Amino acid sequence: MASLSFASNPSLQSRDDAVALLNTKKKKNKNSFSYSSSPSYLLGLSPKPRSSAFSSNAGCSGAGVARASAVEVVKEEDVEKRKEKDRVLRVGVVCGGPSAERGISLNSARSVLDHIQGDDLHVSCYYIDSNLNAYAISSAQVYSNTPADFDFKLESLALGFSSLSEFAEHLTASVDIVFPVIHGQFGEDGGIQELLENYNIPFVGTGSKECRRAFDKYDASLELNKRGFLTVPGCLVQGSEMDKSVLSKWFEINQLDARSGKVVVKPTKAGSSIGVTVAYGVADSLKKANDIIYEGIDSRVLVEVFLEGGNEFTAIVLDVGSGVDSHPVVLLPTEVTLQFHGSVDLKEKDAIFNYRRKYLPTRQVAYHTPPRFPVDIIKTIREGASLLFKQLGLRDFARIDGWFFPSSVNPFSTSNEKFGMNESGSIVFTDINLISGMEQTSFLFQQASKVGFSHSDILRSIIRHACLRFPHLQPYNDVSVHLLHKSQPREVARKVFVIFGGDSSERQVSLMSGTNVWLNLQSFDDLDVTPCLLAPSSDHSSGQHTDGMDADAGSRVVWLLPYSLVLRHTTEEVLDACIEAIEPARAALTSQLRNQVMVDLMEGLKNESLFTKLGDEPPVRLSLEKWIKHAKEVQATVFISVHGGIGEDGTLQSMLEAEGVPHTGPGVIASKTCMDKVATSLALSHLAKMGVLTINKYVRTKEELLSVPIDKTWLDITSKLQCDTLCVKPARDGCSTGVARLCCREDLAVYLKALEDCLLRIPANSFMKTHGIIEMPKPAPERLIFEPFIETDEIIVSSKSMGESADRLMWKGNSRWVEITVGVIGQRGSMHSLSPSVTVKETGDILTLEEKFQGGTGINLTPPPPSIVSNEALKKCKQRIELIANTLQLEGFSRLDAFLNVDSGEVLIIEVNTVPGMTPSTVLIHQALAEQPPMYPHQFFRKLLDLASERIV
What we know:
It contains 30 helices and 36 strands. The protein is α+β, with helices and mostly antiparallel strands. The strands form eight sheets. Strands 10, 11, 12, 13, 14, 15 and 16 form a seven-stranded antiparallel sheet that branches. Strands 22, 31, 32, 33, 34, 35 and 36 form a seven-stranded mixed sheet that branches. It comes from Erythroxylum novogranatense.
């Protein structure tokens, strides 16, 4: 982890200096700020006078990305002398919080940091832990995948505050405005807002009183009903003895069967669908409600009627204008549709838009912006969300969720005239999100891009609107329209094509990687970056060709994408959006609705150029062969983000090199070798004496496995590998797809049955050993690899919330082996090893897809803690990793997964990924940040791009 950088004061060279300075004004009382579920969060606090906008007091800031200049300390009397272009607005981004959404909060903070930092705006980062302790953290820590990645290091890496009061005093001196990105409790319930209000600190978003009223789902429902909106019938459960009789009566009133009536049970004060579940009958509802209370998610639980026959939607609302002219504008809403593939349990069809569906890129959810609703319904949604925003006193931005029910299935029997009821159907608003998620493909950015806002534009516009409320921040408003993104590429800009997608089981992660690379590279003024989707092959094969490279790859299709079509969760959704965008009727409707929103925005924004006006151009469809010729014609460099299939087996590399088109990553031979896990082991087998070991492998075809009795197969494999426990994996897939631990014949039978039935996933805990959901390749792989399962000692990251006195690591270290993943970067023959990451599995023995790529989950210890891996062993490990990389003729960059002996530094290689994951939470980012000096994401991806033009032919 990079150490903190104290850019506000050049004299602060270390954390110790900062702590010493802070200690001179520390107060002993740690309880001056008390947070609870009561209406008032603050006890015994008196408002403090607001300091000058250009205070010279020292402050703690993040390390800052290289393209941003350090904040200057300016005397107040010199303010008027400064040129407008030199003004720097100091923004404090506060993330974390006590709720289970703190991991998502980190992802949001990372997006904000990526897209607003610039010469005219400097970001300082702060973190609130689960116990409401506040810390100033480096921006490097914001790039952690999950709070557990660094919680245990906070005492040594971050600048802690003795109380929230001291934290607030620090903010008054160190930032001009706070941007809270805490989701859930303390972030959206008025907690952080009341703290800031009591210290007169400007902040983005809705005030504390309004937050409290809108955040609690039960209270908000009562408020909406009182104001004439349709609401979902609900009953409040608080864990009392009276709940059963009250709930039974409620079931009766709403004509629900007391034994099997279907309802939704949800915490009143939680977001991201955390704790939300479906229940059947009074007893089941009470059990699940009490589970939520017992688990500490919430003390109040709402039981609602399960809405059937409707379509879910979500809408972003922006506050535009200023003063009395300030008014909300609702962007184009998004329709949210759950999808079910293959045979599913009947109760899964009662599923909801849960945490996993929200944040993991699988095909379980589809999104449509604008929604496929009647035009009058879309108009009603926009009118209703705007009215709700105004009536509840919301500010700057919000996300409002709800349901549309066609008139044929209207579930509401009310005879009263309510807002949203018309001939086409009914609209009901269900959830108000006061700090909408800000991950790269979140609804905020999806909907904003549809009407011309880039990521930077929309975030800066929100911050600018918040600044309008504070007279001393007015000088910044004239200069904050300076945006990072250019409306037209420069003629001399270097062309870059970022390609992602494909049809392997890794295609969704590929989309995340490509999107992240594209967004980071487009911040460079000398680059003209185009995102490109490699569409699935026409026969929907998995890209698994046992005979080598794909001979028919040239006929594959590539789509050159406009900005708004990239921001999707799955490749299928991007492809559908492309087809939809060129369908005349749909394109015309989208254009019509888009123009109306833009008119509404311009009425509020007047003549100010607050958004780039991204073009509404259609996507361009080319064959892969023509796309490569086009890349050659425009002298583009191709950044390959296609995981698996033709993106990693040498096919795409061969086609590009044949036309002389430079590309990132290794060449044809290295790619082909590393794609085949058996070939990789053979290529490294001669390095055993140098401390590089390989795992014995046994390859069987699917046909062989399904035609031989289970008992015989199990005995045959375990005998050949001389082990009792197996690890099975597809021969040509990555990202933990289809990887499982098999402890007995019964486990093998379950796995082979999943192959035979072509299951998309194996449910959690289907085997003897505990495990998470296992995503399976589609179609089923033709070849499977069996290996001895390597036992490593469990590493536990404990936290204060688990009853420990401090966050710490627990590791018995009996086996002396740990699992690591490490990136390599450089030119062929001189590859450099980044600092390895020790991987910590949260559930089971195999890293799940979530733990690898879903933001807010998974733990990676980067660099390895000295308490686990000695410096000497780490040095030897890196030398051996470089030996492996050079032996395999890797170049550009790759990622190696291995087991490491913490004493000898010996490396037992698992596999090599020549197109590794490049998602916002990938360990490669952590490792690049651990370099000296740190490489921030945009620098890292630029380095990889530049290496492509320097490659050895």
